[in-house]
Amino acid sequence: MIYASFRIEWPGFSLDVDEQLPARGVTALFGHSGSGKTTLLRCIAGLEHAATGRLSVNGDVWQDSDSWVPTHRRPIGYVFQEASLFAHLTVLGNLRYGQKRSRSADRRAAQFSLEHAVELLGIGHLLQRRPAALSGGERQRVGMARALAVTPKLLLMDEPLAALDLARKQEILPYLERLHDDLDIPVLYVSHAPDEVARLADHLVVMDGGRVQASGALNDTLARLDLPIRLGEDAGVVLDGHVAERDERWHLLRVACCNTSLWVRDTGAKLGDHARIRILARDVSIAHEPKEGTSILNTLPAQVVSLGDDAHPALCLVRLAVDDKPVISRVTRRSADQLGLAPRQQVWIQIKAVALL
Ligand SMILES: Nc1ncnc2c1ncn2[C@@H]1O[C@H](COP(=O)(O)OP(=O)(O)OP(=O)(O)O)[C@@H](O)[C@H]1O
């Protein structure tokens, strides 16, 4: 468990956070620009000396009222928006330089970690190059490998994809997923991109005005209708399941989540693979009866849980339960009224698009 409690007062901004975060998986710190995500990460790294508070990571106290472990002695890997690599060193030289500050007394473990990091980030063929000869995406992968090569107990990533174009992002995301699947250390991942959060995170912390507004498992937190941050067109949920069936003829996969199945486009995933799917609220419509004669593949029975406001007064958000899984629908208030939508009502939902992440 990571226990983080910090208070900072600056003119025009204050941070007041008191959170317990999971010691495994990826926790996304999500929020508007200026909400305090980077400041919180810097507090955890020991880079904000103004912070009073307490921080412990899996029982090790890094900061409390009597002690302060300086940044260079904290076993953290830090990945920034842009990897600042030493231009005069090769990629390997950069990785080794980073490793020198590793606290690991065990050199063999450190060596393994470097090899592991190189393999995980797929940069073996780049080791003798200098940073000037790397693409933006490659540089960022080297930056991530450098962060891992210090055998960290906590990985801090501050918008690692923000400086990259869409194609480079798509190139790096699979590596981030590998980190997620392979690493046993917790990752705190700052982002204001809902698609990245949906794809990578297990746990979501929503920040606003220096405070934590919501925190919890990704699926549950995304399904909250009272989030202070309106996700707009990105409002929706993610569901985790596995690939249960392949329809060769129509190039579709059936993803099973508990007792529910959804058809998605065949991405080449293997039967039995873990599958995370994203359903946007705008793609979910509601009806009293299952519709005949429609092009929509995914029609499911659901129960209305609650209704909430949307940003525009013509619209509302409806939280539904499909089995025990949350789904959100965005409909007009007029439709909600005509359908008489109310908590516990049984309805059918049609899902126009389901994305396999
Ligand atoms: N050293 C400082 N002194 C005073 N104010 C600061 C300092 N550092 C940051 N701030 C302010 O604190 C607020 C939070 O900044 P922070 O960088 O943590 O936000 P963020 O959520 O990470 O934003 P972004 O997504 O744009 O990176 C901002 O208003 C910023 O101007």
Concise summary:
The protein is an alpha+beta fold. The protein contains 8 helices and 20 strands.
Topology as H/E string? Answer: EEEHEEEHHHEHEHEEHEEEEEEEEHEE
Overall geometry:
globular
CATH architectural arrangement of the largest domain? 3-Layer(aba) Sandwich
User: How many β-strand stretches?
Assistant: 20
- Structural class by SSE content: alpha+beta
Ions and ligands: adenosine-5'-triphosphate
Distance from N terminus to C terminus (CA atoms, Å) equals: 27 Å
| Major beta sheet, strand line-up | 6-7-8-3-9-10
Task: Provide mean pLDDT, rounded.
Answer: 88
Multimerization state: single chain
By DSSP (H or I, 4+ residues per run), the number of helices equals 8
CATH superfamily of the largest domain: P-loop containing nucleotide triphosphate hydrolases
Low-confidence stretches: none
Q: What characterizes the major β-sheet?
A: 6 strands, mixed
CATH topology title of the largest domain: Rossmann fold
Proportion of residues in helical segments: 10-25%
Determine and state the CATH class of the largest domain.
Alpha Beta
Task: Return the domain count.
Answer: 2
Question: Could you characterize the architecture of this molecule?
Answer:
The protein is α+β, with helices and mostly antiparallel strands. It has two domains: 2-230, Rossmann fold (3-Layer(aba) Sandwich), CATH 3.40.50; 236-356, OB fold (Dihydrolipoamide Acetyltransferase, E2P), CATH 2.40.50. The chain contains eight helices and 20 strands. The protein has helices at 37-45, 91-100, 107-120, 136-148, 166-182, 194-200, 218-222, 333-339, and strands spanning 2-10, 13-21, 26-31, 52-57, 60-63, 76-79, 154-158, 187-191, 203-208, 211-217, 236-247, 252-257, 260-265, 274-280, 284-287, 298-309, 315-322, 325-332, 346-351, 355-356. The strands form four sheets. Strands 6-7-8-3-9-10 form a six-stranded mixed β-sheet, with helices on both faces. Strand 17 and strand 18 form a beta hairpin. Helix 3 (107-120) runs antiparallel to helix 4. The protein is globular and about 65 Å long. The relative contact order is 0.12. The structure holds adenosine-5'-triphosphate. Adenosine-5'-triphosphate (ATP) binds at residues 10, 13, 31, 33-39, 192.
